[in-house]
Specification:
Blueprint (H helix, E strand, L loop, with lengths): L13 H12 L10 H11 L4 H4 E3 L3 H10 L3 E4 L2 H6 L2 H6 L3 E3 L5 H10 L3 H9 L6 E5 L3 H12 L7 E4 L7 H9 L5 E4 L6 H23 L1
Parallel strand pairs: 2-3, 2-4, 4-5, 5-6
Antiparallel strand pairs: 1-6
Helix pairs in contact: 1-2, 2-11, 4-11, 7-8, 8-9, 9-10
Length: about 220
């Protein structure tokens, strides 16, 4: 093909080769061993090395997420795209499930009647769920802001909040608000993020949970 050199990589080896390239691109930077898979998965998803700098982990956040998934938690996303991107096979193998209330007719109706966003009402639905909950918010800062309000009111206590909304209006502010909360969290500071990043972080945690479960079986 003309003068373009294409690297031949077997289909089964593409992800491993990508992760090796990411390791090289980190230029010797080190991360806590439990955080590195999350950082690499975000870079792998976005091809953006800024995630090596803008991801913020509260103490014990990775362990909190792994434990929640192993316990069969409910994962709540703020977009159907993020829900679609999560490896639900692994999640369901632990007895968990992924839900998104954004397109529920009753959520849309209530949001319209109250003059609120569907994301806001969705977080109120999340607060009513039984058992442990993980929030993966990659799109709507209003969802993250309402989640923080509910936590302050003692109505919501997630096992982990993944706060990575993307955009310009109240995005940075919503993340900075989460960073003040006494709840395990993983945040992509600044304007970057998105549903794909929310799903990538979930998958990194799910794969670590899967590996731990396999180790404990032997």
């Amino acid at each position: 093909m003309r003068d373009i050199h294409l690297e031949h990589v077997a289909p089964a080896d593409i992800e491993a080769r990508s992760m090796a390239i990411i390791e090289e691109g980190l230029n010797g930077r080190t991360f806590p061993p439990e955080e590195l898979p999350v950082v690499k998965r975000c870079i792998h998803t976005s091809a953006d090395f800024d995630y090596a700098d803008n991801l913020v982990f509260s103490p014990g956040a990775v362990e909190a997420g792994i434990s929640a998934f192993l316990s069969g938690c409910t994962l709540v996303t703020d977009t159907q795209m993020a829900r679609s991107g999560v490896n639900k096979g692994v999640l369901e193998s632990f007895g968990g499930k992924a839900v998104c209330f954004m397109s529920d007719p009753d959520v849309a109706a209530e949001a319209k009647a109250r003059g609120e966003t569907r994301a806001t009402v969705s977080m109120e639905r999340a607060a009513e769920l039984p058992g442990p909950v993980v929030l993966a918010l990659g799109n709507a800062p209003t969802a993250l802001i309402r989640a923080c309000q509910l936590m302050e009111e003692g109505k919501l206590r997630p096992a982990l909040v993944i706060g990575v909304p993307v955009g310009f209006v109240n995005v940075v502010e919503s993340k900075e608000l989460l960073l003040t909360m006494d709840v395990p969290h993983i945040v992509a500071r600044g304007r970057k993020g998105g549903s794909n990043i929310a799903a990538a972080i979930c998958n990194a945690l799910l794969y670590m949970a899967r590996d731990r479960a396999k180790e404990e079986q032997h």
